[in-house]
Design a protein that fits this description.
Strand content: 5-15%
Order of helices and strands: HHHEEH
Distance between the termini: 36 Å
Number of strands: 2
Shape: globular
């Protein structure tokens, strides 16, 4: 019963969070990095130069940037898990069997949520403020 309750709480939190983040994307309508970098001459700042050939490492979604969906999902999951288990400090490992395989350790729920959000910045599809 407790496992079913946890998955129900996670599902509701993710759904509510995505409703909020997708709504904000169209309320604010902010450029993604690929647009901002390629069209920097249109930003009103004389100190930025465009780089029309710049591309991000990840495929850019076709909708505006702010707020970041993966950052939202990581944050709501970390919050629900910390509340459910009574602590954010919950060491665990994630193993990926791809080529090459790897195992990554995390000290807390928020550590993996933070990494998830930063992965979008490092991939070039989000800004830090997203």
């Amino acid at each position: 019963m407790q496992t079913a309750r946890l998955f129900a709480l996670l599902s509701v939190a993710i759904h509510d969070g995505l409703l909020t983040s997708f709504t904000s994307k169209y309320d604010y309508g902010l450029w993604r990095p690929v647009t901002a970098i390629q069209r920097a001459d249109e930003d009103g700042n004389v100190f930025t130069d465009p780089d029309p050939d710049w591309l991000p490492l990840l495929v850019t979604s076709s909708y505006p940037t702010y707020a970041g969906n993966m950052a939202e999902t990581g944050a709501v999951c970390a919050t629900v898990l910390a509340l459910f288990f009574g602590t954010n400090i919950f060491p665990f490992e994630v193993h990926w069997e791809g080529i090459p395989g790897w195992t990554h350790s995390y000290p807390s729920f928020w550590a993996i949520a933070d990494e998830e959000a930063r992965s979008r910045i490092y991939g070039g599809i989000h800004f830090h403020f997203d």
